[in-house]
UniProtKB/TrEMBL annotation:
<keyword id="KW-0676">Redox-active center</keyword>
<comment type="subunit">
    <text>Homodimer.</text>
</comment>
<dbReference type="InterPro" id="IPR036188">
    <property type="entry name" value="FAD/NAD-bd_sf"/>
</dbReference>
<feature type="domain" description="FAD/NAD(P)-binding">
    <location>
        <begin position="5"/>
        <end position="293"/>
    </location>
</feature>
<comment type="similarity">
    <text>Belongs to the class-II pyridine nucleotide-disulfide oxidoreductase family.</text>
</comment>
<keyword id="KW-0521">NADP</keyword>
<keyword id="KW-0560">Oxidoreductase</keyword>
<dbReference type="InterPro" id="IPR023753">
    <property type="entry name" value="FAD/NAD-binding_dom"/>
</dbReference>
<keyword id="KW-0274">FAD</keyword>
<dbReference type="GO" id="GO:0019430">
    <property type="term" value="P:removal of superoxide radicals"/>
</dbReference>
<dbReference type="Pfam" id="PF07992">
    <property type="entry name" value="Pyr_redox_2"/>
</dbReference>
<keyword id="KW-0285">Flavoprotein</keyword>
<keyword id="KW-1015">Disulfide bond</keyword>
<dbReference type="GO" id="GO:0004791">
    <property type="term" value="F:thioredoxin-disulfide reductase (NADPH) activity"/>
</dbReference>
<protein>
    <recommendedName>
        <fullName>Thioredoxin reductase</fullName>
        <ecNumber>1.8.1.9</ecNumber>
    </recommendedName>
</protein>
<dbReference type="InterPro" id="IPR050097">
    <property type="entry name" value="Ferredoxin-NADP_redctase_2"/>
</dbReference>
<dbReference type="GO" id="GO:0005737">
    <property type="term" value="C:cytoplasm"/>
</dbReference>
């Protein structure tokens, strides 16, 4: 007979690992299903995290490892697998998580699958993927030492990427579609202090050109219509995130792909909770993801007691 866990947590970013820590302390019989070989989620590709309390300036990879070590220390159980769909027998019923390598059952679920980078959808983006187009400066930046690169976007990730790349690239263009950045003010200050970064305001990327690899980025000014070609060898796209929720279509209510859930993590399906970047929320940060994990476990505990 299949083992029925009290709780299955899907995802092992800060929300999933936060939930795993709280679930262990609540002594719930819990399984964490993670698709990647290394836990941590998006935080792993963040060069430096300067807003997690108590750990100023910690490397994103190190923070991800610390979260996982903490969960391990408390005895959390992990299973590497890719979720295909979830079947729900209804209120108080068993929830079956159907994965590539097996099916896992639980009385309650926490969906903490996070989000992935959004694509821009311009000509050349697909063609030059891995040949100069990247979505991860900390992963690929080293290939562009002493080269000219462009970062597209104006949020935290775009500005963090531009700062990171400026350490190794001869020049970094930041292309932003408006005349002010969305990123945290402290990041903006660090960016503005860099001499080899040039911000091109009110500008959008039209296409990426080259012969086998990236050679030029065509941009246009949205106010004047003026076009220009930037000679760049790398284009880093940081235009936001898309929730990883397709496996839960029809299971829980969604809004623009995000799972509808409040701070308590409760979704439209009893016994199924959402935590972290995948849920509807105001602020998507590591600290709010970790907090979501704690809240979702508390809600799951109540559900399991009252069930
Ligand atoms: P984001 O905050 O949504 O910013 C996306 C940026 O891309 C915005 O500046 C947006 O422009 C621009 N953009 C979107 N679509 C575009 C398009 N089609 N063409 C051109 N530009 C486009 O996304 P993010 O920077 O990837 O960050 C994702 C989330 O992670 C955010 O909530 C962020 O705060 C969070 N984060 C947290 C930490 C941390 O906790 N330490 C670190 C990094 C990121 P507009 O400004 O005009 O909308």
């Amino acid at each position: 007979m299949t083992h029925v866990y009290d709780l299955i947590i899907i995802g092992s970013g800060p929300a999933g690992l936060g939930a795993a820590i709280y679930a262990q302390r609540a002594r719930l019989d819990t399984l964490v299903i993670e698709k990647a070989m290394v836990s941590g989620g998006q935080v792993l590709t963040t060069y430096e995290v300067d807003n997690y309390p108590g750990l100023p300036g910690i490397g994103g990879y190190d923070l991800g490892l610390k979260f996982r070590e903490h969960a391990d220390k408390l005895g959390a159980q992990f299973q590497e697998d890719q979720v295909l769909k979830v079947e729900d027998d209804g209120p108080d019923g068993t929830k079956r998580v159907v994965c590539v390598n097996g099916t896992y059952e639980a009385k309650a679920l926490i969906l903490a699958t996070g989000a992935v980078h959004r694509k821009l959808g311009i000509p050349g983006e697909e063609e030059f993927g891995g040949m100069g187009v990247s979505y991860c400066a900390t992963c690929d930046g080293a290939f562009f030492r002493n080269k000219v690169t462009a970062v597209i976007g104006g949020g935290d990730v775009a500005v963090e990427d531009a700062i990171f790349l400026a350490r190794m690239c001869s020049k970094v263009y930041l292309i932003h579609r408006r005349d002010s950045l969305r990123a945290a003010k402290s990041l903006q200050e660090s960016l503005m202090a860099l001499e080899n970064v040039e911000i091109l305001w009110d500008s959008v990327a039209d296409s990426i050109l080259g012969d086998g690899k990236v050679e030029r980025l065509v941009i246009s000014n949205v106010k004047t219509g003026e076009k220009q070609e930037l000679p760049v060898q790398g284009v880093f796209i940081a235009v936001g995130i898309t929730p990883e929720s397709s496996a839960f279509a029809g299971l829980v209510e969604m809004e623009n792909g995000y799972i509808k859930a409040g701070e308590d993590g409760k979704t439209s399906a009893p016994g199924i909770f959402a935590a972290g970047d995948v849920r509807t929320k105001q602020l998507r940060q590591i600290i709010t993801a970790a907090a979501d994990g704690a809240n979702a476990v508390t809600s799951a505990e109540r559900y399991l007691t009252e069930r």
